[in-house]
Amino acid sequence: MAFEGLAERLQGTLNKIRGKGKVSEADVKVMMREVRLALLEADVNFKVVKDFIARVKERAVGQEVLESLTPGQQVVKVVNEELTALMGGEQSRIATAQKPPTVVMMVGLQGAGKTTTTGKLANHLRKKHNRNPLMVAADIYRPAAIKQLETLGKQLDMPVFSMGDQVSPVEIAKEAIARAKEEHHDYVLIDTAGRLHVDEELMTELDEVKEVARPDEILLVVDAMTGQDAVNVAESFNDRLGITGAVLTKLDGDTRGGAALSVRAVTGTPIKFAGMGEKTDALEPFHPERMASRILGMGDVLTLIEKAQTNVDEERAKELERKMRTNELTFDDFLEQLAQVRNMGPLDELMNMMPGAGKMKGLKNVQVDEKQIGQIEAIVRSMTKAEKEDPSILNASRRRRIAKGSGTSIQDVNRLIKQFGEMKKMMKQMSGMQKGKKKGGLGGMKFPFM
Amino acid sequence: MSFFKKLKEKITTQTDSVTSKFKDGLTKTRDSFVGQMNELVKDYRKVDEEFFEELEDILISADVGVHTVMELIDELREEAKRRNISEAEDIQPLISEKLAELLQKDDEEGGLNMQENDMTVILFVGVNGVGKTTTIGKMAHKFKEEGKKVVLAAGDTFRAGAIEQLEVWGERTGVDVVKQQAGSDPAAVMYDAVQSARSKKADVLLCDTAGRLQNKVNLMNELEKVKRVISREIPDAPHEVLLVLDATTGQNAMSQAKTFSKSTDVSGIVLTKLDGTAKGGIVLAIRNELDIPVKFVGLGEGLDDLQEFQADQYVHGLFADVLKEAEEAAEKSE
Ligand SMILES: Nc1nc2c(ncn2[C@@H]2O[C@H](COP(=O)(O)OP(=O)(O)OP(=O)(O)O)[C@@H](O)[C@H]2O)c(=O)[nH]1
Ligand SMILES: Nc1nc2c(ncn2[C@@H]2O[C@H](COP(=O)(O)OP(=O)(O)OP(=O)(O)O)[C@@H](O)[C@H]2O)c(=O)[nH]1
Ligand SMILES: [Mg+2]
Ligand SMILES: [Mg+2]
Predict the structure, then answer these.
(1) In terms of domains, do B293 and B320 share one?
(2) Which residues make beta-bridge pairs with A189?
(3) Is the CB of B275 less than 8 angstroms away from the CB of A196?
(4) Which of A131, A158, A412, B310 qualifies as a FRET site for A44, CA 20 to 30 Å off?
(5) Which positions in chain A touch B213 (Cβ < 8 Å)?
(6) What is residue B159's DSSP assignment?
(7) Residue A391: is it exposed, middle or buried by C-beta count within 10 angstroms (0-12/13-18/19+)?
(8) A148: nearest CB among B160, B215, B276
(9) For residue B302, what pLDDT band results from cuts at 50, 70 and 90?
(10) Which residues on B lie below 8 Å from A152 (Cβ)?
């Protein structure tokens, strides 16, 4: 309940609207309420949400949504577009200084993942960019922080510069850069101690480290599970240091990760990497669009909508939906759906994009293997018009004839007919779900193939 | 002038210590706190929609969670109607009392389930980086001060430098640490630790575990096994399973509480990093839904920065910063 996706959230509203044919401004308001709740539940900061809703609403009460046949889809689409725009494009590149070494400073709250990310980044630079980074242990406060980085260095077989915990971080940074120059390291990654953004003394220390290290990148490391406070943290670090980007850690968890949006909104800097685990290779480029869907809690359903929109004629979709509801679907419709689905991309990928699809029992049985599609087409083509329209007349001799005509076995034909029956049943269920109370449906979205 | 600005002003003029920091307020008794809050609201405006919206924002910004906030506000709205309350001054005490009550029932003992004549075993669990190891260090210090013999178990054999980190805390507090090599089986470490602590006649055994995200099934199974090993050696142990939550965490903390409870039967929460600006308001929702009490709060990285949880102080802290912010904003605009 707590983590309903936006699609599910909008469903109830859409059901009411559907009967009315047209969407009013009041309806849009109700939908905006749902969008707001979805974002707040995903930990997007409430002020960021307010601004965001204002923008989406402006577009939503415009022609775009009101006049659409599929207002739910349109709202989700507008939300997603705005969200993706806010998240910015993909930018998982680390700056390169004109004159090496490039200096990168890792900063952030306690326990966010700075030290671990320092190790990951070193590994990434070596593996993906063939670089030779030097890691610097500049956390002199946390018990065994230096040991932690050194252990990572040992695991990676990469050098770590340290001067113990009795020397100031400023001094350590200075010496480290000198060392890097001597030893021809092209990157210097400085791991700093975790600190609160309101800790004046320690924030000043970062200023000083920045002063001597003249970093090309200052990366704010943010825990993806961070709640409303992400805004304060990001704002403070950015105001103070001028961060150049962020790394979002612990995204391998099940958090929605609304902090990503908050950080992005208040700093305007890109999120460059995603931490996806505790090991040193668990660093991935950050994908803003995927993050947008994750925040909304709707799998990749948005990509799916886009695909559907480009592939399907809306009128035809409506007709199919009606047939589905009334259980009139024929083998011809089935074939047409199949063709459309194929146009959209690999089947299992599509299935994965649908929220809740994995959990639906019915879907497992009708799951169609890409290779089998040709066979299915052949079978359907060998049917007569009457057979296509009314599968119930398919007796044993007809089935034998079809198998022969399509070059398949009678078992193949039997299987398809059974699957078709199941699919019809399921579609009926699902379209019922769209109308009704049951949860876990497809959120009022009309897919051409269901 | 906004309601909350006035509220803030009253607090500051009355006692600086209460607002300045959650920490400073910890010595205040519950009565004086509620009393003060009641005093604060003499000449306020009406209980209207704007009032509730402001309240909603404050609670949401403290990570209480939309669902719980809506529920709370609905209750307050109804209560206000039922009691015919239209002045903010009359609803104010209701708010703080309601929140505090939710967090700490009146007859609740609080504190830890300590064994009188036997060793008390406390297991620390939680996701990565929340402050488990640090809390163990602080708690070791607390018990040591009480004259107890304490042993620490280095059950995080996975994270780089985790064992060394606990050892530093052992040195700082003058407490023995039972450890094995990095990479060894944490359940085996626990077995060792129980034996060793027993033979040392320890009063308290504090068990560290590696941070793990609750959606990692293997790691949650591993944790169950660690707990099982302890229970096998001492039937009613661990006497406390403390889930460490980072106050900075948002709604995911609910999922943490649910999953960790399922696998280790969590008996209490330690809410860390409350010395920052985050409020950890999700503990309200956790209490509401799962009935897990907050037992301690972490207020810094030092030995003394662990305090027993006090609901009224916490609720006050929930509002203090926002009040300050509101006041500053109001000042700017004036
Ligand atoms: N699952 C997961 N764990 C992570 C990730 N990044 C870091 N961690 C874990 O988070 C915890 C804290 O990481 P650290 O690297 O020590 O964090 P830090 O910011 O250096 O901490 P301080 O130096 O104490 O401020 C450790 O248990 C890490 O293993 C990630 O992307 N996924
Ligand atoms: N400001 C503040 N920092 C804290 C508090 N508690 C812990 N920390 C810091 O948070 C960081 C992580 O603490 P740890 O004790 O290593 O956390 P952990 O849960 O043991 O981490 P893993 O074992 O890596 O999962 C360290 O930098 C601690 O100093 C607190 O109450 N306030
Ligand atoms: Mg660190
Ligand atoms: Mg630890």
Answers:
(1) no
(2) A104, A135
(3) yes
(4) B310
(5) 250, 252-254
(6) S
(7) middle
(8) B160
(9) very high
(10) 160
Give per-residue pLDDT as tens, A293-323.
788 776 544 445 545 555 555 566 667 667 7
Lining ligand 2 with CB less than 6 A are A 110-111, 142, 194, 196; B 126, 128-134, 156, 159, 162, 210-211, 244, 272-273, 275, 298-301, 305
Q: Which pLDDT band, with edges at 50, 70 and 90, does B146 fall under?
A: very high
Give domain status of residue B257, yes or no: yes
**In this structure, what are the phi and psi dihedrals at residue A268, rounded to the nearest 5 degrees?**
70, 5
* Same-domain status, B98 and B187: no
Question: Which amino acid residue places its CA nearest to atom 13 of ligand 2?
Answer: B131
Are residues A287 and A317 located together in one domain of the fold?
no
Phi-psi region of A217 (alpha: psi -120 to 50; beta: other; left: phi over 0): beta
Cα separations in angstroms, A233 against A183, A226, A259, B65:
36, 10, 11, 19
Q: Does one domain contain both A218 and A112?
A: yes
Question: What total number of domains does chain A contain?
Answer: 3
For every residue of B70-112, DSSP letters joined together read HHHHHHHHHHHHHTT--BHHHHHHHHHHHHHHHHS-TT---S-
Q: Give pTM, 2 decimals.
A: 0.79
Residue B18: partners with Cβ closer than 8 Å, 6 or more residues away: B11, B24, B25, B28, B33, B36, B316
* Host domain of residue A343: 302-444
Q: Confidence band (pLDDT; 50, 70, 90) for A364?
A: very low
Q: Which residues fall within 8 angstroms of residue B117, CB to CB, at 6 or more apart?
A: none
Domain co-membership, B285 together with B261? yes
Closest CA to B210 of B177, B255, B166: B166
Q: Which of B40, B43, B42 is nearest to B9 (CA)?
A: B40
Beta strands in B169-316 (DSSP E): 176-178, 204-209, 240-246, 268-272, 294-298, 306-308
Grouping H, G, I as helix, E, B as strand and the rest as coil, residue A371 is coil
